Amino acid sequence: MSDLTPGQHSKFVKHFTSKTNIVCPMCGQKSWSTGPILHGQPWAEGTLVLGGPSVPLATIVCDNCHFIAYFAAVPIGLLEKDQDASVAPVMPPEGWKG
Questions:
Q1: Does this model's pTM top 0.70?
Q2: What are the sequence ranges of the domains in the chain?
């Protein structure tokens, strides 16, 4: 998990505000905050694959109910293909109230 740099944050906000009209599927609100880049763990035949390749995922969090939506970080241009974004242990961000 890693926090977005200011440049990544700007690019991500531009992407999801220009490409989508995101309404939270849980509560119907439209107010979102960006979260960290996470690595989605791959599954194969119903089993979590440990130590295998992961998919970097940029996240947005609903400001009302805290539902999380995921976006593939590489196609958006937040990371280069094969760039390692795992610079911190997998833990909730400081101040997270999940």
A1: no
A2: 6-76
Dmax (CA) for the chain in angstroms is 38
**Is the separation of the CB atoms in 57 and 71 below 8 Å?**
yes
Dihedral Cα 51, 42, 34, 2, nearest 10 deg = 10
Residue pointed to by tokens 């999801």: 16
| SS3 readout for 6-17 | HHHHHHHHHHHH
- Which residue do the tokens 């119903």 mark? 46
pLDDT tens track of the chain, all 98 residues? Answer: 677 888 888 888 888 788 778 899 999 999 988 887 777 767 677 777 777 677 788 888 999 999 998 888 888 888 877 665 553 333 444 555 54
| Distance, CA of 23 to CA of 57 (rounded, Å) | 19
Report the DSSP beta bridge partners of residue 43. Answer: 48
Q: Which two tokens stand for residue 9?
A: 């944050």
The neighbour count for residue 23, using CB atoms within 10 Å, is 12
